[in-house]
Amino acid sequence: MAGTEPSAMRTESLRRRFRWPLALAMLLACATAARASVPDVLHIDPVQSYAGFSVRLIWWQSVVGQFNDVRGQVRIDPDRRTARVHASIRVDSVVVKPSRFRERLLGKHFFDVGTYPDILFVSDPMPLSLLESSHEHLKGTLTLHGVTRPMTLQLYGAHCPAPHLADCTLRLRGWLDRTRFDMRAYRALVSSRVHLDLVIHLQAEPEPSPASSAPARASSS
């Protein structure tokens, strides 16, 4: 019996010696698997995404519009578990009600589409957990009419299936003061406050066909 005690002690010592390295290896394997499950880039689907807006006129009528060509990416840092939105909106994809205002909106007094064909939004890095939240704020910069200003949007609805986050839909809303983007025309007739409502659908692969080939969506009144 006395001879077996040192052997048992050595066996227990070996078990303890390898227990922590094994546990650490398992933790590293889990972390690596979790990192691998998160894509580096998600693409904005231009067919299912749009950017809506509305602005009130002096006689209590509203102009309601929608940009139907929204493209870009959500670039993900798997190590930091953060994401950053890069979105581009084609100004000439706008549909507006009443339709008679479309030409005027695209002209030099408002969007000036010939000089500034795109609207750009770049978000600050945000935690990936934000993609599964509501009533959170997404901060970044908006470039409109050649002017770049800070912009904050409220995330009021998100459906992003974990862990891959593909087939994810984000709903955001906010407002801007158009005069801060050098759009000051007709201030006596058109409100300076513009309300925004965006739906961004994300997918794992970029859309191969241009958005113009898809049926145009009519904006809601």
Total count of helical runs of at least 4 residues: 2
Tertiary shape = elongated
Q: What is the residue-mean pLDDT, rounded to a whole number?
A: 82
Structural class: alpha+beta
Relevant CATH superfamily of the largest domain = Lipid/polyisoprenoid-binding, YceI-like
Walkthrough of the structure:
- The chain is α+β, with helices and mostly antiparallel strands and 221 residues long.
- It has two domains: 37 residues; 176 residues, Lipid/polyisoprenoid-binding, YceI-like (Lipocalin, Beta Barrel), CATH 2.40.128.
- The chain is built from two helices and twelve strands, in the order αββββββαββββββ.
- The chain has an eight-stranded antiparallel beta barrel.
- Strand 4 and strand 5 form a beta hairpin.
- The longest helix has 34 residues.
- It starts with a helix and ends in an 18-residue tail after the last strand.
- 22% of the residues are buried.
- The C terminus is likely disordered.
